[in-house]
Amino acid sequence: ERVDFIDFFQQVIDRFEMNVSDQIELQRDLPKEKLYVWLDKDKMAQVLDNIISNAIKYSPEGGAISFKVAKQKGNLLITVSDQGPGIPYDKVDKIFDRFYRADKARSRKLGGTGLGLAIAKEIVESHHGSIWAKSKEGKGTAILFTLPLINKKRRVN
Ligand code: ATP
Ligand code: MG
């Protein structure tokens, strides 16, 4: 269905804001305008739930998580960044593989199956977007994904 992504994203973040500890700050950097995309809302909520849960799971006390949406040509670029431990350079692309968990010891302690991001990738791609990660060890992790914007004016030739 056609959805204003900004409104949808605000609602998802609001839900986390109510439940997350005061020690983690959620920062939003979102456009003021409505930006429409085609969404399976339940599936996209699953994508964001996993990305944001990971960010919270790996955030240090006093850490900030930032949410950003930008227009990029015909796409939306959505970025969720944290100030957690990061992911080693050679492992950052593997986190989208099924059952892959970057830091065995820490991951075991924090729980999970290693499926979240593999499912997120499937869902984003089924929306004709792509997803990737940028990370610096000791600095933090950013998960980025795109979604095609719906044209306001449909061109008929
Ligand atoms: P699940 O999501 O199934 O509960 P999970 O969170 O371990 O388990 P994914 O969400 O697929 O699995 O993430 C895969 C791995 O990528 C994680 O185990 C972790 O090693 C790494 N990872 C994901 N997000 C972050 C992050 N924000 N900071 C650091 N490492 C991350
Ligand atoms: Mg996860």
UniProtKB/TrEMBL annotation:
Swiss-Prot/TrEMBL keywords: ATP-binding, Cell membrane, Kinase, Membrane, Nucleotide-binding, Phosphoprotein, Transferase, Transmembrane, Transmembrane helix, Two-component regulatory system
GO molecular function, one term: ATP binding
Coiled-coil ranges from the UniProt annotation: none
Location relative to the cell: Cell membrane
GO cellular component, one term: plasma membrane
Main location: membrane
GO terms of biological process kind: cellular response to phosphate starvation; regulation of DNA-templated transcription
Entry keyword Cytoplasm: no
Stretches assigned to the Histidine kinase domain: 1-151
Protein name (record): histidine kinase
Lineage: Bacteria, Bacillati, Bacillota, Bacilli, Bacillales
Gene: walK
From-to range in the entire protein, with total length: 452 to 608 of 608
